[in-house]
Design brief:
Layout lengths: L1 H16 L5 H14 L4 H10 L4 H21 L8 H10 L5 E2 L2 E10 L6 H19 L4 H8 L10 E6 L5 H8 L10 E2 L3 E11 L2 E2 L2 H31 L7
Antiparallel strand pairs: 1-6, 2-3, 2-5, 4-5
Length: 248
C-alpha cells in the first residue's frame, strides 16, 4: 500500500514542480538501454512482448522513471553536502576496505616427472633442472628457457603465472620465495610429480591506499547512503502532509 501511496505522492510532486521529460530524452534513454544490453529494436520488442508490454507503454514507464529521477535530484540529491571531515572519518574507520593484499608475480619452469617411483627418471630430471639453473646463472633469459623446457602452465608465455595473493600460496613455496628479491630465482623445488624453478617477477607489499586514492569512492558511498536516508525522510514528510483517500 505504501508503494502505491509513494508513487502517487511522487507523481503529484512532479506535476506541482512542473517537471517534464521530452520525447527526445526518453528516446535517448531507450537507446542507451539498448546499447548497454546489446539489444536491437527487434530484441527489445520481443522482450517487451514477453513481459506483456507495448512499446508505447514501455516509453511511458521510461518517461515516468526519468521524471522520478529528476524529482529526486531536485528534492534530495541537490541538497546533500558531504563534508571533508565525514570522508576522513569514514576512511579512518574503514581502512581495512582500502588495504590491498600482499601479492607476488611469479614465473616458473616446471619439469614433470612421468613416474615418480622411477629412480633413473628422477635423477635425469634433477640433472636437467641443475643445468637450467646453471644456464640462468650464466645470463640466459628465464622466459626463453621456460618456453624451451617448461611443461607447466604459462610455458609459451615464458613461464608467466601472473599475480597471486600470498595467502593463496602453498606454505612451502611461500617460504622459499619470501627470501627471494624481485628478479630472484629459486633453487629447484622438488615435488612428488614435478620439479619447479620459480622466478619472483615483482612483489607488491600489503599497503593502505592513501586517502587521495579513495576519496572519490568514499564520497560515493556516503552520498548514496545519504540519498537513501534523505529520500525516506522526504517521502515520510510528504505522507504526513498529504491526504490520500484509498478506495478498496
Amino acid at each position: 500500500m505504501y508503494l502505491l501511496i509513494d508513487e502517487k505522492l511522487a507523481s503529484n510532486k512532479i506535476q506541482e514542480l512542473g517537471i517534464d521529460v521530452s520525447p527526445e530524452e526518453v528516446e535517448a534513454a531507450i537507446e542507451k538501454i539498448k546499447k548497454d544490453n546489446n539489444l536491437t529494436d527487434e530484441d527489445l520488442k520481443t522482450s517487451l512482448k514477453k513481459q506483456g508490454l507495448t512499446y508505447e507503454s514501455y516509453r511511458e514507464n521510461i518517461k515516468s522513471e526519468l521524471e522520478r529521477i529528476r524529482l529526486i535530484s531536485l528534492e534530495v540529491r541537490s541538497k546533500i553536502i558531504i563534508e571533508e571531515e565525514e570522508i576522513k572519518e569514514y576512511y579512518e574507520k574503514h581502512k581495512d576496505e582500502f588495504t590491498s593484499k600482499e601479492r607476488i608475480h611469479l614465473a616458473a619452469i616446471i619439469l614433470t616427472r612421468g613416474n615418480p617411483s622411477n629412480q633413473d627418471e628422477t635423477i635425469s630430471l634433477h640433472r636437467e633442472a641443475e643445468e637450467i639453473i646453471l644456464r640462468l646463472k650464466e645470463g640466459e633469459d628465464f622466459g626463453e628457457l621456460a618456453k624451451k623446457f617448461s611443461q607447466g602452465p604459462g610455458a609459451q608465455d615464458g613461464g608467466d603465472l601472473g599475480f597471486f595473493n600470498t595467502s593463496e600460496l602453498d606454505p612451502k613455496l611461500l617460504n622459499v620465495i619470501r627470501e627471494l628479491p624481485e628478479g630472484g630465482i629459486s633453487k629447484p623445488i622438488i615435488r612428488t610429480s614435478i620439479i619447479q624453478i620459480i622466478k619472483v617477477v615483482e612483489k607488491q607489499e600489503r599497503r593502505v591506499k592513501p586517502l587521495n586514492e579513495v576519496r572519490g569512492a568514499i564520497y560515493g558511498i556516503l552520498f548514496r547512503e545519504r540519498v537513501n536516508n534523505r529520500y525516506a525522510s522526504w517521502i515520510k514528510a510528504l505522507r504526513e502532509k498529504a491526504y490520500i483517500k484509498i478506495l478498496f
